[in-house]
Amino acid sequence: MRTLLVTGPGGSGRTTVAAATALAAARSGRRVLVLSADRADTLGTALGGPDAHPGLTARHLAPDDRFRDDLLALQERAASALDLLGADRVDGEELTPLPGAEELALLRALRDAAHDDAYDTVVVDLPPAPKAIATLALPEQLRRYLRRLLPPERQAARALRPMLGRLAGVPMPASWLYETAARWEDELAAAQAVLEAPGTTVRLVAEPGPAGADAVRTAVAGLALHGLRTDLLIANRILPDDSADTWLAGLSAQQHKTLSEWETTYDHVVRAPHLGRDPRGTDDLAALRLVVPTAAPDLVAWPVTEAPDGDGSHAYVWHIPLPGVVRDELGLIRRGDELVVTAGPFRRIVTLPSALRRCTVAGAGLREGELRVRFAPDPDLWPRGR
Q1: Hey, what's the torsion of the CAs at 223, 112, 30, 118, to 10 degrees?
Q2: For the domain 304-377, what is the CATH code?
Q3: Cα(7)–Cα(5) distance, rounded to whole angstroms?
Q4: End-to-end CA distance of the chain
Q5: Which of 193, 269, 285, 384 has the most CB atoms lying inside 10 A of its own CB?
Q6: Phi and psi for 255 in degrees, rounded to 5?
């Protein structure tokens, strides 16, 4: 399965590029599903209709119904607690989706599509980059919260809870709470597995220029922090460079300056021309000349290497790739067995590899787009003779 996640700055033409990518893949003989949670259904507008091409299925997600069903089911399971508190029941007709419902619906659809044998390529029209990165980070973050709130060892002791409740003299969490947490854990783990699969990559879309360059740099850093791979940077709406209009010629020169920087910095940059109008329908999408999905780049590794010191002792270095990050935007905190890494507006909490949990942080440095965190073995925890 090849999964392509399309995002970029707001207004950069993400939906158009997602539609054009899906169309190119379908015309190459692939069975393609393209997903969007945009309430305005701009994806359908770009494709020109639901039957744009044989082998291409467009699906517009409506999170309202699933959100309503989930909340009503939770209310039913918690009926006894709500009655005890004297709470009024909520009717389904009065429920409206809360913030985040669209993101969860998109993750569920992505998880389901990855296991649907009817498709071999899935293209996802994501929200603008900052929101998209937050959405893609949700499965890992929510699983961490669940483990903190309801540790697995507590869930494992289900048979002991009634007895423990009597001994402690306080009510214990009901079984349905643990069952719900286990179901959520399974669903989130399945979504995270799709995002971490070898065939899943992100395609960034941006208009070349100063604002686009800043947005791309920030997005690339955020994606790398969360272990997400970028296979293409699509420079969208490229103006012709032979215009007699001095104003357009000035904009074109600015675009080409940024393009030159991108093609020097990033491995794969594709140019999509400005058509002089908003693309609509298969002819316009084909005119963008976007490539068919390529093979996914290698998975991004965070390796640990051994770094012997001059005095004969050993240290270890954890290599965390963070392209585009500058020193002033970087933050690093060790908290127990976890490391909190901040890169610009993005933050990720990662669990230390087992060997590093017995070490102390001895320093960190940013070099050539890579954060290198140095660890020294803790004498109180490290086996003697090592």
Answers
A1: 170
A2: 2.60.40.790
A3: 7
A4: 44
A5: 285
A6: -60, -45
**Concatenated DSSP letters for 85-150?**
HTPPPPPGGG--PPTTHHHHHHHHHHHHHHT-TT-SEEEEE---HHHHHHHHHHHHHHHHHHHHHS
What does DSSP assign to residue 62? -
- Torsional sign, CA 288, 289, 290, 293: positive
Strand 56-60 relative to strand 121-125, pairing:
unpaired
43: tokens are: 């994806």
Token pair 């922090």: residue: 225
What is the rounded (10 degree) CA torsion for 15, 18, 24, 30?
-130
State pTM to two decimals: 0.85
Q: What is the pLDDT of residues 54-83, one digit of tens each?
A: 999 998 887 655 555 665 665 566 556 555
- Can you tell me the distance from the alpha carbon of 137 to that of 128, in angstroms, rounded to the nearest whole number? 14
The CA distance from 164 to 135, in Å, is 38
Whether the domain at 2-64+96-287 and the domain at 304-377 fall into the same CATH topology: no
Task: Give the DSSP letter of residue 277.
Answer: S
182 is written with which tokens? 């286990």
Domain residue ranges of the chain, discontinuous segments joined by +: 2-64+96-287, 304-377
pLDDT in tens, 22-33: 999 999 999 999
pLDDT given at position 158: 53
The string of pLDDT tens digits covering residues 117-126 is: 899 999 999 9
C-alpha span between 193 and 111 (Å, rounded)? 8
Q: Residue 359 phi/psi, 5° resolution?
A: -125, 165
User: What residues have CB less than 8 Å from 334, skipping those under 6 apart?
Assistant: 340, 360, 361
CATH number of 2-64+96-287: 3.40.50.300
Which candidate, 35, 43, 44, places its Cα nearest to that of 105?
Answer: 35
For residue 385, the tally of other CB atoms under 10 A from its CB is 4
Angle at 10 between CA 61 and CA 279, to 5 degrees: 75
